[in-house]
């Protein structure tokens, strides 16, 4: 394999790793550590009944 082809393959591999498929995702925990939310569950914009 020539040096130029090897370099092109290397760049293609790096480009593939930069796609959104390999980006880290932040997932908010629903239960357990990190699940506390200061805002309560909203009732879809409805005012509270008095």
UniProtKB/TrEMBL annotation:
Protein name per UniProt: Ribosome alternative rescue factor ArfA
Region (Disordered) location: 1-50
Naturally occurring in which organism (per UniProt): Vreelandella azerica
GO biological process: rescue of stalled ribosome
One Pfam family in the UniProt entry: ArfA
Basic residues: compositionally biased ranges: 25-42
InterPro entries reported in the protein's UniProt record: ArfA
């Amino acid at each position: 394999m020539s040096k130029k082809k090897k370099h092109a393959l290397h760049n293609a591999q790096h480009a593939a790793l930069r796609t959104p498929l390999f980006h880290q995702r932040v997932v908010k925990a629903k239960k357990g550590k990190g699940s506390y939310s200061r805002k309560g569950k909203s009732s879809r914009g409805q005012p509270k009944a008095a």
